[in-house]
Every structure is written in C-alpha cells, then in structure tokens.
Amino acid sequence: MSEGVDPILKTINKMSETEEKPILRDFLALERTKLANERTFLAYVRTSLYFLLGGLAFIKLEELENAVYLGYISLGISILLIVLGMIKFIVLRKRIKQRLGAHNLAMQEQKKT
C-alpha cells in the first residue's frame, strides 16, 4: 500500500493478512472502526454543508460582484466533498464487512472445536 492510505485501512488490511484465530478484541476493534467510519462520513457531510451555505451566501451578495465566483467555487467544493466522503465511506464499509464476515466464520469454527 502507498504511504497516503488511511491508518484504518492499513489496520484492516493487516488484520486480513494474518491467519491467527480472531479474538474478542479484534471484533471490538472492528466495531470501533465502523463507528469511526460513520463519524468521518458525517464530518464530510457537515463540511460539505458549510461550503454549500457559504457558497450560496457569496452568490447572493449583490455588493461584491467578484464574490459570486467564490460562491460558485464553494459550491463545487461542496459537491466534491460529499462525493469524496461517500466513496471513502462505502469503500471502508465494504472492507469492514469482509473482515467481520471472516471473523464470524472463524468464531463459528472455534465454537465447533
């Protein structure tokens, strides 16, 4: 993986590569990761909404004609942020579900033995 990858993704990939039997600590770590993923997505949404509101305010300013351009730039950034946040959320959620599925199968096998 490259150096610019999220630490959460590195942790999930590292956990997926190990062949050790999962323990409760691993399951709880994945649950915390799910919650962190949701919090991060909500932060993207909140930031996007701030840019949206700021952009609309700049567009409505009649006294400063140059501020209209700043408003349109803010609207573009708002759309970019919400799309980026959704992509990151969906990708990480898929990886977490894969890891949780593997964890649940391993736990069932442990119970059988």
Q: Could you characterize what this model shows?
A:
- This protein has 113 residues and is mainly α.
- The protein has one domain (25-112).
- It is built from three helices and no strands.
- The chain has helices spanning 7-17, 24-60, 67-112.
- α1 (7-17) runs parallel beside α3 and α2 (24-60) runs antiparallel to α3 (67-112).
- The model has no long low-confidence stretch (mean pLDDT 81).
Task: Quickly list its features.
113 residues; 3 helices; rod-shaped; mainly alpha; single chain
What summary fits the major beta sheet? Answer: none
What is the alpha-carbon Rg in Å? 21 Å
Shape: rod-shaped
Number of domains: 1
Q: Give a count of the beta strands, DSSP E runs of length 2 or more.
A: 0
**Into which percentage range does the β-strand content fall?**
under 5%
Helix vs. strand class: mainly alpha
Mean pLDDT: 81
For the record, give the distance between the C-alpha atoms at the N and C termini, rounded to a whole number: 36 Å
* Low-pLDDT stretches: none
What's the helix-strand series?
HHH
* DSSP helical segment count: 3
**Approximately how much helix is present in the residues?**
over 70%
Q: Quick gist of this model?
A:
The chain is mainly alpha-helical and 113 residues long.
